[in-house]
Amino acid sequence: MQMVKSPMSRKLTRNGGLIYPVIGLALFVTFLYLSFGDLLWFSYNKEIELSFVERNGTQFFVDGKVFYINGWNSYWLMDHAVDYSKRSRIRGILQAGAKMGLTVCRTWAFNDGGYNALQISPGRFDERVFRALDHVIAEARKNGIRLMLSLVNNLNAFGGKTQYVKWAEKEGVALSSSNDSFFYDPTIRRYFKHYVKMVLTRRNVYTGIEYRDDPTIFAWELINEPRCMTDPSGDTLQDWIEEMSTFVKSIDRKHLLTVGLEGFYGRKSPKRSTGNPEFWAADLGSDFIRNSMLSTIDFASVHIYPDHWFHKKFEEKLKFAAKWMLSHIEDGDKELRKPIMFTEFGLSNENDDFEPVQRDRFYKMVLDIIYKSAKRNRSGAGSFIWQFLVEGMELYNDDFGIVPWERPSTYQLITEQSCRLAREHGVLPTQTEHLKDFCTRTSV
């Protein structure tokens, strides 16, 4: 089952009247203050110097120091930044990420043809929305947070490849009934290349820096969760990845590049029957090893959604997710010789047996495997929770989203991961002395 990552309505259930939330909030604020002290009130107004992240073999490096990532997803940053009244949410989530010791946020650098569209039609851009993306990048820089920017969606949310196909149809281009023509039609490929060039060469109105020259951007992601089901051999998607990754590198050789894969093994992979969640995963037109092997791809990406891939009990999902991660880390170490990034992971709250403690256990399993990889200098280079929100964003939530500070145990898990990684490989210049002090006196 594919996830639909678009805003959706949620009913809020409230129990116990007003007094209990007030008491709970007061206790949590006290917990945060006692635990983190003046870290919460640190000012991020001063200029923060960033360097480009580089890759050497299976590891990332910043300023010569090994870099393992504790990150998160907030896909909604550009969309919110269009509305000045909502920009405080961007600042709030980036400051919160910095306070938790997080270093990279993955977000969308696309919105094609719909409400608040960045690309109104092929080659036509809304300057107002481009300035919103400028703001997101500038605000991330202020907070010492790097961004992984995705360039198009395989799904329909925020336009995606379907919108490109619709644009081509309006031009009278003869296409198949499938939106997979996004991957092979020459007209659509030209549309996408023009989009990529416009984004990569954009000069930020707030910083004066072209995107391709800005170290605030950690990496580019070609496409979120690519699938080409009309060609299960994988040849069509492989050709597209090769052409587009080469094109990106012809414009920008400073930034890292990844595909945006879910991590499924294709028909020709020896792991298609032992590594995949179920048999259908080999027929989606993607292949983790083959797609990631290209010299123009700097690191591989994997997603972890066991409750969307099969219907089993929680313990079985947890067991599979651990096996899934270790399988891909093995691929990074032995086959690809590249870092492996688990760029989305989440546990749905719509499972019949869901309890909040399950989500904590799932998060802990993922974070523990990344920590062990960091301790052993292996290729498992980082993980990104799907997804973080701030209060009042119910319309943007799905069944995976969390406000990280609402549940103290979850907040502590995330922050302790930052501390563990810092202990193994040191505190980056962008991570405050407050975090360094906190981690030295916190047991993990």
From TrEMBL:
GO terms for cellular component: extracellular region. The chain crosses the membrane at residues 20-44. It comes from Nicotiana tabacum. One of its GO terms (molecular function) is mannan endo-1,4-beta-mannosidase activity. Its EC number is 3.2.1.78. Residues 51-388 form the Glycoside hydrolase family domain. Signal peptide: none annotated. It catalyses: Random hydrolysis of (1->4)-beta-D-mannosidic linkages in mannans, galactomannans and glucomannans. One of its GO terms (biological process) is polysaccharide catabolic process. This is mannan endo-1,4-beta-mannosidase. It is an enzyme of class 3 (hydrolase). Belongs to the glycosyl hydrolase 5 (cellulase A) family. It is found in: Secreted. Keywords: Glycosidase, Hydrolase, Membrane, Secreted, Transmembrane, Transmembrane helix. Its main location: secreted.
